[in-house]
C-alpha cells in the first residue's frame, strides 16, 4: 500500500542554508530506513517549503506528523494525499529542487503569476509542477 502526500509550510526565520542542509542530511539518513522517498523544495524568496513524501501509508503518515511538529516551520498545510500504484520520486531519499533552475515559464504554466505560491494553487497543480521539475532534471540529490 503506497501513498503520496504533499504539503506546504512557511520556514521559520532561522532557516538558512545550513539549517536546510541539516534537514536534508537527516532525511537522507532516516528516510531509507522507513522506505520513504520524495522531494523538498525550499524557496527562500517566496518563504515557502513544498515537500512530497511517498512510501507505505503508516511510514508516510508517521513521518508527516513528526515533520508537522518541527519548529523550523509553521503554517503546515496538507495539499494532497492519495493512494498510488507507483512512486514518481523513487530516485531520491529526499531530493532537493534547484530553485536556480526554476523556469518562470514553468510556474506560469500552473499559476496566475510566476511566483511559487502553493497556498494559492491546487494540490494537483503543485504536483504537476513537481513532476515537470523531475522531468527537466531540476531535482538534485542533497549533498
Ligand atoms: C521542511 C522539513 C522537512 C523535513 N523532512 C524530513 C524528512 O523527509 N525525513 C526526516 O526524517 N525528517 C525530516 N524533517 C525533520 C523532522 O521534522 C525531524 O526533525 C527528524 O525526523 C528527526 O526526528 P527525531 O529527532 O525524532 O529523530 C523535516 C523537517 C522540516 C522542517
Tally the helices: what do you get?
4
- Average pLDDT works out at 91
Low-confidence stretches: none
Radius of gyration: 14 Å
The major beta sheet can be summarized as: 6 strands, mixed
Bound molecules: flavin mononucleotide
Give the H and E element order. Answer: EHEEHEEHHE
**Binned strand content:** 25-35%
Distance between the termini: 30 Å
Structural features, described:
The structure is a single chain. The chain is an alpha+beta fold and 143 residues long. The chain contains four helices and six strands, in the order βαββαββααβ. Strands 4-1-3-2-5-6 form a six-stranded mixed sheet, with helices on both faces. Strand 2 (37-43) and strand 3 form a beta hairpin. The model has no long low-confidence stretch (mean pLDDT 91). The protein binds flavin mononucleotide (FMN). Flavin mononucleotide binds next to helix 1, strand 3 and helix 2.
Concise summary:
Helices cover 35% and strands 30% of the residues.
Note the topology.
Elements: E1 2-11, H1 17-34, E2 37-43, E3 48-56, H2 57-68, E4 73-84, E5 95-97, H3 104-110, H4 123-135, E6 139-140
Parallel strand pairs: 2-5
Antiparallel strand pairs: 1-3, 1-4, 2-3, 5-6
The structure holds flavin mononucleotide.
The site of flavin mononucleotide has 15 residues, from helix 1, strand 3 and helix 2.
Question: What descriptors fit this protein?
Answer:
4 helices; alpha+beta; globular; six-stranded mixed sheet; binds flavin mononucleotide; 30% strand; 143 residues
